[in-house]
Amino acid sequence: MKHIETLYLGCDNTSEVADASNCIIKFDAGSSAAHALIVSRFSHELFKIQGLAQEGIVTTPYKICILIRTGLIGHKYSKANESTVDQTIMWFAKNWLPPSCGVIFSFYEYDDLFGVEIQQPIMTQVIWPLNDKLQSKRDGGYITYQKFPDALLKRYSHKYENAKETGQLDVIDNIEKLSPYPVKEIDYSMSEDEIAELLKHSKMHFTYQGATYFMAAIMNVPTVCYGSPTYMSHPSKWWEYGEFHEESVQVTMWGNYNYGARIPTTKIGQYDFKKQSAVQRPQRYLYHSMTPEDLEGIIKGFAMTVNHVEYSVDD
After folding, report:
1. Stretch among 75-89, 92-106, 157-171, 258-272 having the lowest mean pLDDT
2. Strand stretches in the chain, DSSP E
3. Residue ranges of the domains in the chain?
């Protein structure tokens, strides 16, 4: 393994490095082709570390060894991408909120002669945030959206077909005419810095189940997912700061059994900035629009409600 760099988040630079004897996150072709995969690999570990730190089990900076396969260094999955795979991985690592005990990320380039890949499913049990400087401000006076990329349209995509069949794709195609606010498009030709800057100041974001579905989550940007009507969960239980709750919530990708989750949709691992604590509760940033009329109304200023939290583009 060739050492690339070591990052110290939430702790002093002691020149210590993580190695293969520590926790390992491995990125190869099976686990690096989407923002969702990269985000979920980090989120799971960081939430776990925060929980252990709160319990007094982990009291020193936690070491994580990050392996990036040689063929991914400098590689782009699409010519249209602004960032290479390793640049994207490093960007997220540098911008995560560190757990309270601190974390040490050591990056290594490795080569796997046998081509054994981790076919890593998206893990949707946890939404771990980026640092507080990258959390939503909603002060830009505009809304943002991400449309289906051209590359996706050249092959069969059930997400795209669903969006067309529901009639919601037509609404998104006319979002600039419908919105009372300026509209800015986000696409894969942008760097992570550019995407984060637009989302940070956006009044509300509209997306399919693509990269910004997850970027908005870790920045707490009020978001509408179009083209994927869903349903309400069975009543599920959770405790939040000593209070018991039992409710039905909208089923999204978060906590969804179809994406490997084995927890109720009401117990998504998250971080509460006010309490400075890891928590498990329903996600409160994302709403799946149910009909074209529903989507159009939200674009024009009608409110949407996510687990008792109300958002409007006019906020």
Report:
1. 258-272
2. 2-9, 23-27, 62-69, 103-110, 143-146, 183-185, 205-207, 223-225, 236-240, 243-247, 268-272, 277-281, 286-288, 304-306, 309-311
3. 2-122, 124-315
